[in-house]
Amino acid sequence: MMDENLSIGFIGAGMMASALIKGVIKAGKAKPASITASDAYQPSLDRQAAEGVHTTLSNREVVSRSRVVFLAVKPDVVASVLDEIKDDVDPDRHLIVSIAAGISLESMEGRLNSGARVVRVMPNTPCLVSESAAAFALGTHATAEDRALVQELMGSVGYACEVKESQLDAVTGLSGSGPAYVYLLIEALADGGVRMGLPRQVALQLAAQTVKGAATMVMTTGQHPGQLKDAVTSPGGTTIAGIEALEKAGFRGAAMGAVVAATQRSQELKALSATPDKSSK
């Protein structure tokens, strides 16, 4: 069971950190006053302060006020942040949780004092509505208690599972980038409805609810998506005609290719992060 007085810090208060903060508060896993956030961009801090979160310009203060510290900064500044907070991180007290893509556990542990407990997490933005899909990997010194804490913390804002660190690039390509693929699908379905005469707002609501309902069916029934697809596909009917159009357009291959491309880009960014002189653009 999570400590009711758990103190959580966020170094970086951008979009993903904001989503996590709001999700954790909404789930009742932490009170706003027990959360501390730092950022170099004052408007980001102002947004958190308006929610009752303690804000500061000092990353070291975040560490001093927190038991769990999320690194929610761009990958190219993780090294400098770790160098800054190194002497403030107590392995017996602090758990460092990084959501920075492409920064390995080994590299982070190497910049902190011996014994530092580190976990890498790849969440996604639907944690803002408590529907995150997240995966995490434990560092060398992370404990079973740390595993349970991260599982509960991330599970409070959606689905969370432990994976090998080597699998996190694939997680990035699938669920990390996946919401954008689904938004594109919803937009395309809605455009199809408009093309066939539906009002824009009606088409958008129907498309979004259809995706939500279909996902809920997969999650709650335990049936393979292919089985659920076959159950609504009548011989000679409308659905099989639509599926044929998708197959002819290479829908499956495009979806698979998106995951592969995003995974490969994550791997490229990881390689670039190890070479400071190169740009990730």
UniProtKB/TrEMBL annotation:
Keywords: Amino-acid biosynthesis, Cytoplasm, NADP, Oxidoreductase, Proline biosynthesis. The keyword Oxidoreductase applies. One of its GO terms (biological process) is L-proline biosynthetic process. NADPH binds at N59. InterPro entries: 6-PGluconate_DH-like_C_sf, NAD(P)-bd_dom_sf, P5C_Rdtase_cat_N, P5CR-like_CS, P5CR_dimer, Pyrroline-COOH_reductase. Gene3D superfamilies: NAD(P)-binding Rossmann-like Domain (3.40.50.720), ProC C-terminal domain-like (1.10.3730.10). Residues 8-102 form the Pyrroline-5-carboxylate reductase catalytic N-terminal domain. The lineage of its organism: Eukaryota, Sar, Stramenopiles, Ochrophyta, PX clade. Its EC number is 1.5.1.2. NADP(+) binds at I11, G12, A13, G14, M15, M16, A72, V73, K74, P75. It comes from the Eukaryota. Coiled coil: none annotated. The keyword Amino-acid biosynthesis applies. Belongs to the pyrroline-5-carboxylate reductase family. This is Pyrroline-5-carboxylate reductase. GO terms for cellular component: cytoplasm. It holds the Pfam family F420_oxidored. It catalyses: L-proline + NAD(+) = (S)-1-pyrroline-5-carboxylate + NADH + 2 H(+); L-proline + NADP(+) = (S)-1-pyrroline-5-carboxylate + NADPH + 2 H(+). It is found in: Cytoplasm. It comes from Tribonema minus. GO terms for molecular function: pyrroline-5-carboxylate reductase activity. Residues 165-269 form the Pyrroline-5-carboxylate reductase dimerisation domain. NCBIfam families: proC. Pathway: Amino-acid biosynthesis; L-proline biosynthesis; L-proline from L-glutamate 5-semialdehyde: step 1/1.
